[in-house]
Amino acid sequence: MAKFKASIAQIDPVWDRICSEAENAIKDEPLMGSLLHQCILHHARFEDALAYRLSMKLASAEMSEQLLREIADSAYEAEPELVNSARADLVATFERDPACHRFLHPLLYFKGFQAVQAYRLGHYLWEQGRRDMAYFLQMRISESFGVDIHPAAKIGKGIMIDHAHSIVIGETAVVGDNVSILHTVTLGGTGKEDEDRHPKIGNGVLIGAGASVLGNIKIGDRSRIAAGSVVLGDIPPCKTVAGVPAKIVGEAGCDQPSVSMDQLLKKCMGEG
What we know:
Helix content: 40-55%
InterPro entries: Hexapep, Hexapep_transf_CS, LbH_SAT, Ser_AcTrfase_N, Ser_AcTrfase_N_sf, Ser_O-AcTrfase, Serine_acetyltransferase, Trimer_LpxA-like_sf
EC number: 2.3.1.30
Keywords: Acyltransferase, Amino-acid biosynthesis, Repeat, Transferase
Structural class: alpha/beta
Strand order of the largest sheet: 3-6-9-12-14-15
Pfam family, one: SATase_N
Protein name: Serine acetyltransferase
Oligomer: single chain
């Protein structure tokens, strides 16, 4: 058993840690044993547990847990990058969210993480031409998590969506890697225009609570958007913007604002 666990840790240290945390959680709270066994310890791989959890959260009278599990299993088998992105999102959530104390927390409890992984399934289906099923998943994600992400949107990995109330991401939006988004954020259009009409968010960007980024505009890498801002024009890299409409109010203040999660209008600790 010890040798088996060591080999699993070498292959997938994220999954090994989740399993260890689940065992410890059962010792701390035995009443959670059934849930933790069903969601984690009964599964051999991270992707199996993820497929199970998403299917249970998204199932309804219109689409059974079994059918959704088959869709997820097939997607993860065909496109391993979906699982790699999920691992990156989970680690990002653990590192950036001070309320996340275990790796298993996003998988079990955090609707921001779960919504992004469900979106990733919908995006995969969209790319495969299964548009109606992708739209169905978009509907269920909105109903279950309060997050509305069009399945055609393109989202990188290392994404952390904190709290995840009322998130809206439009059809032609693009979100880079290592982006942090707080609640009530909109990446939307400015009217009824067709074609490319939504924002392009660079890598390492931090978007504060209640911010709206509207139109086919570019937000430069490692920028910060202050809470409540309305961004209507391009933002250069490494800047902080605030206000309605948003204006540049200073530098981003650090190399990775999405990781530091510093939302005050000042430079990050130890900088400048």
